[in-house]
Write a structure and sequence with these properties.
- This protein is mostly helical and about 170 residues long.
- It has 7 helices and 3 strands.
- The chain has helices at about 15-45, 50-60, 65-75, 80-90, 110-135, 140-150, 155-160; strands at about 65, 95-100, 105-110.
- Strands 1-3-2 form a 3-stranded antiparallel sheet.
- The longest helix is centred in the first third of the chain and has 29 residues, at about 15-45.
- It is globular and about 60 Å long.
Length: about 170
């Protein structure tokens, strides 16, 4: 059977190292396309990089995490995690409470104020991506959307997607 010239045969899946480099290139382009507004807003918060990562981590967790969990997830020492969390608690971005089972364990989660802060940063990032995507053709946007649909359907990925992202 001969394939018609108007139909493109699907190419084999790229090897993970190749795809990883492609993703990095795309992410770098996406960040460079609209990073200035996001970085301006993020810098106005006057958070250290570790504090920023901790807030973003906690905002996406349905339950409070122990400070030990924060340290392990961020790949930092327990004392470093504790030092990062303390100013966030003082600023009302994060709240800390004793674990109901083990009072020695402190659990942390974002406050409503912290959640609003993260939502504002995400909204800024979405606007920058929208501006970037305005430069794509309709065909490129459709292909990108088609490629993302299957991946975004995975529960471990979908939980990080802002509401209203599904077509």
């Amino acid at each position: 059977m001969q394939v018609s010239p108007s139909r493109k045969q699907s190419s084999p899946a790229p090897a993970p190292p190749t795809l990883a480099r492609q993703l990095l290139g795309f992410f770098r382009f996406a960040w460079a396309s609209g990073d200035s507004e996001f970085m301006r807003e993020a810098s106005e918060l006057e958070l250290t990089f570790t504090q920023f990562k901790a807030v973003m981590l906690l905002a996406h967790e349905p339950e409070a995490l122990s400070v030990k969990d924060v340290s392990e997830r961020l790949g930092i020492s327990f004392p470093a995690a504790s030092r990062a969390v303390e100013p966030l608690v003082r600023r009302g971005i994060v709240e800390r409470a004793e674990d109901p089972v083990d009072r020695r364990v402190k659990r942390v989660r974002t406050t409503k104020s912290g959640d609003r802060l993260v939502e504002r940063l995400i909204a800024t990032r979405i606007k920058s991506f929208e501006a970037m995507l305005d430069g794509f053709s309709a065909t490129e946007r459709r292909k990108l959307g088609d490629a993302l649909d299957e991946i975004l359907a995975r529960p471990e990925v979908a939980r990080y997607c802002p509401r209203g992202t599904r077509r």
